[in-house]
Structure formats: C-alpha cells, structure tokens
Amino acid sequence: MDIKRVAINAVTETIVMTVVHMDYKGQVAKRINEKMPLATVKGFRKGAVPKDLVAKQYGKGIKQEEVKKVVDLALERYIQSERLNLLGTPLPVVNEGLDWDAEELTFEFEIGLVPNFEIDLDAKNDIVKYIVTADDKLIDGQVERIQKQFGKAIPQEVVAADSDINGVFTNEAEGIGNTTTINLSIFKDQATADKFIGKKVGDVVTVNTKGLFQDDHQLMDYLKVGHDNVHDLAIDVDFTIETINASEPAELNQELFDQLFGEGTVATLEELKAKIKEDAESQFAQQADQKLLGDVTEFLIENTKFELPEAFLKKWLQTVGEKKLSPEEAEVEYARSEKGLRFQLIEGKAMAQSDIKITFEDLKTFTTKNIRQQMAQYGQTNPTDEEVQGIVARVLSNQDEVKRLSEQVVAEKLLEVFKEKANPTTKEVTYEEFIAASYGE
Fold first, then answer.
1. Residues 17, 75 contacting (CB under 8 angstroms)
2. Residue 49 pLDDT > 70, yes or no?
3. Which of 102, 300, 314, 407 is buried most, with the most CB atoms less than 10 Å from its CB?
4. Cβ–Cβ contacts within 10 Å for residue 86, how many?
C-alpha cells in the first residue's frame, strides 16, 4: 500500500491511499472459503456450489468490506506514525466512479490540522488584577440583612413603607416568573414604592422595568433576567403579593453569633464585622481571579493569530452528531463555536509552553480541598480524613466529575501562570466598582 499526504493549505491536507491486490486478496479468499459451505445457488445443493460461482455472487461485497477494513486500519496507523494533530476526524472524499474491479484502488481523506503557533504570555497589555475590598457600606448592609434574616417576621394585613413583601414577578410573554422577597427601599423612585402602600395579599401591582431599580443589574436578581437584556428592558411586569411581614430585627448577641459562626468564634459586633469582611473578601478574591482569567484569555484570543481549517471544519460539522447539518446550519454552528475552539487551542498551547501537567495527585488534592469547603458550609468543620477521602474516592469514580474537576484544576494552574507572566496592573476597588468594571460600565 502506498500512502502520501498532499497539502491543500497550511492547515488542510489530503491523505491519498493506493490499495493493491496484495493488501486484501488473502482475507477475501479466506472469507469466500468460509462462505462456500453456506452458499445457495439454484441448481446446486447447499455446500456444493463451485467456488467461482460463490466468488461471483459474494466476492464484490466481501472485497468492499475487506478493503474498507484495510483502509481504516492503515489510516489510523498512518495518523499515529506521522503524529498528526488533527481537528475533527478524517473526511472520506467521495469517488462515485471508483472501479472496484481495478487492480489498484485509490482512496482520499481530507484532514484538518491543528495550526502551528506560539503565544506571547509576556505581551504588553492593559489587564487589571482587582483587589476587591468590603467597605463599611457593604459590611453594615450585611449586618442589617443578618438581623432581618434571623429576626422575627410579624404578619401584616397591608403593605407599609417598611414591609417585607414576598411575591412573584411575572411577564408571560418574556418568560419571567420569579418568586422573591422585596422591600420598598429597593425601588429607584418613591412613586413606584407608593403603588404598593396599602395593598393586601393577593393584590397585583404592575410596574415597568425601565429605571425600576437604582442599578439595572438588580433585574438579574429579582426577575432573573440575563445581563445582555437588563439595560434595554422596558416592559411591564406584574407583582402578585403572597405574604406581607414586618420584621423585628434579631438582637446582636452571643446566641446569634454562635448560630452564625459556631460557638465562641465571634463575641462582639466588631468581631462580627471583621468576620463578614474576611468572608466577603475571600469570595471577592475568587471572583476577581475568575475575571483575571477571563480577561487574559480574551486578550490572548484577540492577539494570538493563527489560521483554522475553516472549510474543512464546516464540512466536518455536517457529518457529526445525531442530526446531520445542512451547509447553512454548519456555517451557523462554526460561527458559534469558533471562539471556543480557539480558546481550547490557546489553552493547550499555554499549558505546553508553561509545562503544565495534571496528575492524579493534583486532582485528588483539589477535590479534597473542595469537599472540605463544602462540608464546612454545612457546619461540618472538623471531618475526619477517612470521611473526606471516602467522599473524594466516590467523586473521582465518576468520569463526568473527573472531567469537570480536571478543567477546574487546569484553570487554577493557568491562573497562576497568567498572574506571573501577564504582569497585570493591580487595582484596589470596592465590590460595587468591581461589578461595574466586570460588566464594562
């Protein structure tokens, strides 16, 4: 068998395979011999059909099957031996005029190659690493929320200015139907708040989303509207009142502190505020790291130029999946997935250039840390190693979980590389300022 590669462009090639009689004749003859005892031809007893008649009746189909096996195996071995780094899988080039009686049979497969490129992690950039602080306004607000959450709810007949109102925001046409609790202080203007004063359980209040809150992003929390829609959303939504309560704030005492953080962890208001600040800034640091990772990734995608086998991938997309795509559908799918593909290639290159490898011990350590954090959230602050490792073993026995956790380990390792190599500018901000920066506003 003769195999060669023919370049179409830098990232697309054709593998040309020429199969000769010697490559498959032995297996074809063996299959025909196996067929003879079972062959049936009119005028001959079963098992007594002459070999040439058996070959005439079954030979072409057997030949096609055996040639396909030879070609598939040779293609797989060739890709391995040449160490070809492919995007997608080889696509057979259709040859309607193939003469199966010829001594030599030629088959072609189009392949898309991973492009050869380098990334410059040290490139000059304007990326910012945010240090997010919990300011007094945020901390005091959290103290108030704690007092309200653990305070005593006193049912009310009608809505007053300081009422906590539980109900459902709905707009059927926009698919909005979110149950939430509101206080009239959340609204941007007093006229909106006044619509609720004096209302009872079961009443419906209609408001418009345009300028409803001080910050349009609050629509994401109260109405579960996506970020891409919040700024231009100007629709009426109905709020159906389900319960009305006045709140008697909880007393800031040792009983409440122990309930929140465990016995003896916090003893004073100052210690409570310090704990709130510590916990909040720990969460903010994780969010800031995610933004940094996203910003560096976006920078690399925009500034790392390489060619993709676009025409090949669009053809390949038509052949994969349960539902075959039309050329037009493949165009849409390629446009949707191109950026993600570029990210995957850049991520792989960044790992290779930085010599990042993921070991089972890395995965086990990461999973153990996550399990302990989750257990602490549910009050299990001192689980035994045996308990934790038992959970870790169960988690890592699930292949879907292993894949998900591996992606998180990769992201964590890349983040450390990016922090060092990208040399971002450090900027200290409040959480409100960080949210504004995150959404580019």
1. yes
2. yes
3. 300
4. 14
Calculate the alpha carbon distances from 242 to 148, 207, 219, 237 in Å.
Answer: 19, 17, 20, 16
Distance separating alpha carbons of residues 336 and 342, to the nearest angstrom: 12
Report the share of the chain in percent with pLDDT over 70.
Answer: 99
How many Å is the Cα radius of gyration of the chain? 33
pLDDT, tens digit, 9 for 90 and up, residues 170-216: 999 989 999 999 999 999 999 999 999 999 999 999 999 999 998 88
- Pairing label, strands 152-155, 236-248: antiparallel
Distance CA 428, CA 132 (A): 6
pLDDT at 378 over 90: no
What token pair was written down for 330?
Answer: 């493949």
Please give the Cα distance from 402 to 358 (Å, whole number): 12
Burial 131-161 (b: 16+ CB within 10 A, else e): ebbbbeebbeebbeebbbeebeeeebeebee
Q: Give Cβ neighbours of residue 177 (< 8 Å, ≥ 6 apart).
A: 168, 169, 170
Enumerate residues 6+ apart whose C-beta is below 8 A from 308. 11, 87, 112, 115, 338, 341, 342
* Residue 268: other Cβ atoms inside 10 A: 11
Q: How far apart are CA 155 and CA 243, in angstroms?
A: 8
Averaged pLDDT of the chain: 90
Q: Which residue has the higher pLDDT, 440 or 326?
A: 326
Instruction: Kindly give the pairing relationship between strand 425-430 and strand 128-133.
Output: parallel
Map out the domains of the chain with their CATH numbers.
Answer: 2-113 (3.30.70.1050), 152-248 (3.10.50), 262-438 (no CATH)
DSSP assignment of 304-338: ------HHHHHHHHTTSSSSPPPHHHHHHHHHHHH
